Task: inverse folding
């Protein structure tokens, strides 16, 4: 039985800075919220479409990091991906706010 991993935003930022690019970041918030600001390079896939779109658009061998409006939504997204057969899934603790606090790059209208 696997458990959902939770990744601290600082750890993810370090992984990116060290050049470990075999990962995907998914923002499961709604599109208008995503457009306001998101982690640079994050793919927008709303939570209600995640399981359906994941199999056709994500690489199963890549580590997937997800975040939502809050840690509960992030955990729900990670669980949905695990249920869809993805093994390497982590939710980003604190989501976008945690990422910004870690000094991570963002994009969007108010990023």
Result:
């Amino acid at each position: 039985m696997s458990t959902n991993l939770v990744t601290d935003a600082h750890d993810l930022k370090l992984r990116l800075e060290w050049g470990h690019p075999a990962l995907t970041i998914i923002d499961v918030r709604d599109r208008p919220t995503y457009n306001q600001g998101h982690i640079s390079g994050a793919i927008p896939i709303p939570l209600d479409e995640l399981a359906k779109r994941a199999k056709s658009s994500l690489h199963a061998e890549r580590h997937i990091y997800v975040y939502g409006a809050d840690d509960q939504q992030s955990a729900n997204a990670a669980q949905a991906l695990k249920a869809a057969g993805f093994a390497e899934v982590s939710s980003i603790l604190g989501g976008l706010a945690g990422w910004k606090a870690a000094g991570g790059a963002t994009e969007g209208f108010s990023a």
Observations:
- The chain has a mean pLDDT of 88.
